[in-house]
Amino acid sequence: MSIIPRFFMEATVVLGRLPISNPRWCATGFVVGRYEGTQDGNEKFSTYLITNRHVVENEEKMVMQVNLQNGVKAYLLSLASENSTPNYSAHPAADVIACHININPALSEGAQLPFFDLRHHTLTLQQMRDTGVCEGGLIRRHLRQIFEFVHDGIHHILEWLFEISILLFTIMGGQTAISNTYTNDEMVKLYPWLPLYFKTYPNTQPQYQLSFPDGRPIPSKQIDDVLCKWAYKCLIYNMDISAAIAATNQELTELLS
Predict the structure, then answer these.
(1) How does pLDDT run across 198-216, given as a tens digit for each residue?
(2) Residue 34: strand pairing partners
């Protein structure tokens, strides 16, 4: 769902240069309404087109396209009087003009042309300062939210990768100071001896590389594989412990001979 009310978009018009039969669209504007009081129980408004000054400079007439219930329609927009005097008011500093327009003919033909009520849909400069409004603030706020979301996502991904790295390091024989590595439910299901590793920590000594008498390193990874293989058989297949110890000794003897 859009966070912008639909009538905000319908209050926007398209501006183009003549001819009206084939305009060259070049800009947009929007319509605002200034409350002028009540007559016969109905609120009365003066309506104005707001657009950039550079769009209308040196133009006496332009084309304004509005939305109809089914389609669009172009209307001639008069920007100057007969003596070429602009009939719009320009801001003294900003690139903005306000041109009085009569939208009743368009409304009578079914135009979907609401306007921004200056009483309710605008803020003064002081109100903007008080509420922290700035140009592009809505976009920047949403970009900041997106950045925070992405940042948090990356943080969780890196955290997950770090956790996986520690688990792999531990499984491959490393000793980590992160104790919950040894009690991780998913890892314990796959490597049930991890909690046993953890229980031995208070009595363990630094691990040194074992070597044969001739100096060749004893392959500790292969030793671990042998130990784990027969330990698995006891834990998973209920192999007799004495038989598993005997098989382990025999395989290690063959490996180290």
Answers:
(1) 777 677 666 666 777 777 7
(2) 46
